[in-house]
């Protein structure tokens, strides 16, 4: 695919210049990170590109336990960073390992994935389960819960996603991610992410997100509620998995039908909850 109608390309070195280039570039101007999605789209509507690579937004930082990821950091750089490896036992690195292939991960950026909001994104359900916040720039910096990106319009318009923050997890927290796919390199038929807060063996709060249903990741709120205050026994986990399978709306596409996906919801939630529980038990004396 090629952008055959492309007339302008700029690579600004500061955020205000990038916003100006976007605003004054005309209707066909788009922000571009790695372009793995944008360029492949081959869209005739795209007449100008504002390349974000010169903005210095590629970094991973441990800020007193909070993991701060610059929006243009490649998936490989996030995955291989020491701070990512230590954050919640490496759950983010394990999830990224399941995204596409090494050549894709070497180019594609975290921000591009979050903004593109493909329903089968593996990053969105985990980052929502981890209660991430994001910073966007539209002339001013603004930080908001990641959910706001998906509750608003289909794409960020006139704004640049600059950073994602994964908050410092309190003691007794663990997270897990599971992806079902037809092959090692295919996108998800269904994916599932969980974060558990515990006090001893008791769950004080849970966040459970299911993606590729085949819609964008959604919370399994009923399942989260069944776990609040519960001992993390096999029965409690089975109960939460049943509740999630009953409440998450699934549909058909070429990767699976609704009934199959509903079964995957139950299996995915069970696996994630068991893994998170076992990780908490491992670190407790
Ligand atoms: C072959 C293939 C396999 C894939 N497999 C998977 C998979 O298994 N799991 C998965 O989750 N994803 C998968 N993906 C999706 C992939 O992760 C995304 O294509 C990629 O993350 C997009 O990042 P990019 O930097 O290339 O974005 P671009 O293509 O540059 O941009 C994508 C969109 O986001 C906008 N944008 C980009 N950055 C910003 C920013 N900082 N602020 C505001 N707007 C921005 C652009 O304007 C554009 O609309 C796959 C993609 C391909 C091509």
Secondary structure topology:
Blueprint: E1 8-10, H1 15-24, E2 29-32, H2 38-41, E3 48-51, E4 60-63, E5 66-70, H3 75-80, H4 82-86, H5 91-96, H6 102-107, H7 110-116, H8 123-129, E6 133-137, E7 141-145, H9 147-151, E8 160-166, E9 173-181, E10 188-199, E11 202-211, E12 218-219, H10 221-227, H11 234-247, H12 258-283
Parallel strand pairs: 1-3, 2-3
Antiparallel strand pairs: 4-5, 5-8, 6-7, 6-8, 9-10, 10-11, 11-12
The structure holds flavin-adenine dinucleotide (FAD).
The site of flavin-adenine dinucleotide has 31 residues, from strand 2, helix 2, helix 7 and strand 8.
Provide a quick synopsis of the model.
It is built from twelve helices and twelve strands. Helix 10 runs antiparallel to helix 11 and helix 11 (234-247) packs antiparallel against helix 12. The chain has 285 residues and is an alpha+beta fold.
């Amino acid at each position: 695919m090629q952008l055959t109608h492309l007339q302008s390309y700029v690579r600004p070195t500061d955020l205000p210049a990038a916003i100006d280039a976007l605003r004054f570039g005309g209707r066909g101007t788009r922000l571009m990170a790695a372009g793995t999605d944008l360029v492949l789209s081959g869209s005739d509507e795209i007449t100008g590109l504002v390349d974000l690579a010169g903005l210095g937004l590629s970094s991973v930082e441990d800020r007193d336990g909070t993991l701060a990821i610059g929006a243009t950091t490649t998936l490989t750089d996030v995955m291989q960073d020491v701070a990512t490896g230590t954050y919640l036992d490496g759950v983010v690195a394990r999830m990224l390992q399941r995204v596409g292939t090494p050549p894709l991960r070497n180019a594609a950026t975290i921000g591009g994935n979050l903004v593109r909001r493909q329903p089968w994104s593996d990053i969105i359900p985990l980052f929502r389960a981890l209660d991430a916040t994001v910073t966007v720039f539209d002339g001013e910096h603004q930080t908001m819960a990641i959910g706001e990106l998906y509750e608003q319009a289909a794409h960020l318009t006139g704004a640049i996603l600059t950073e994602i923050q994964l908050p410092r997890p309190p003691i007794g927290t663990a997270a897990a991610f599971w992806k079902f796919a037809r092959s090692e390199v295919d996108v998800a038929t269904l994916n599932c992410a969980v974060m558990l807060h515990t006090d001893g063996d008791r769950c004080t709060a849970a966040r459970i997100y299911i993606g590729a249903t085949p819609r964008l990741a959604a919370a399994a709120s009923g399942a989260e509620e069944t776990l609040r205050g519960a001992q993390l026994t096999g029965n409690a986990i089975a109960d939460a998995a049943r509740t999630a399978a009953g409440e998450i709306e699934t549909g058909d596409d070429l990767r699976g039908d609704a009934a199959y996906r509903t079964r995957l919801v139950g299996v995915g939630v069970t696996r994630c909850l068991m893994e998170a529980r076992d990780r908490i038990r491992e670190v407790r004396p």
